[in-house]
Amino acid sequence: MKRRFSRIIFIIPCSLLSSCIGDCVQQKNGTVLNATTKKPIANVKVYKVGHPEIYTDSTGRFEIHEISGGLTGCPTLILNFAKDGYQFETIPVEKTDMDIYLKKDMSQKN
Question: How many domains does the chain have?
Fold first, then answer.
């Protein structure tokens, strides 16, 4: 009886722990817009450091998928947005769908 009880005590924490450990799958999408005109910006490079880059489509839309460890919940996804003629932005993306506004880079001559 005592041996059976000790097995139960061991099995319960292990099963609870294994149910908490797993991958965190995130899907984020949005639209990249000109901060002044509010018009979509095509071909903006969107990426997380160390991961493949994607580009916005002709309507400024992007969709990115991320898988990470989820022991303590999904971490905030930090994305970089880059396009010639615009200021580089690094933005924590917490919402599933959001608008990203890029400002023109005034240090570059047209």
Answer: 1
C-alpha to C-alpha distance for 46 and 52, rounded to whole angstroms: 9
Length of the chain: 110
Residue 25 falls in which region: left (phi positive, over 0), alpha (psi -120 to 50) or beta: beta
CATH of the domain at 53: 2.60.40.1120
Q: What is the pLDDT of residues 40-76, one digit of tens each?
A: 999 999 998 888 899 999 999 999 988 877 677 788 8
Unique residue bearing structure tokens 């898988």: 67
**Tokens in use for 35?**
């901060």
- 11, part of any domain: no
Residue 14 lies in a domain: no
Which tokens in the block code for residue 65?
């998928």
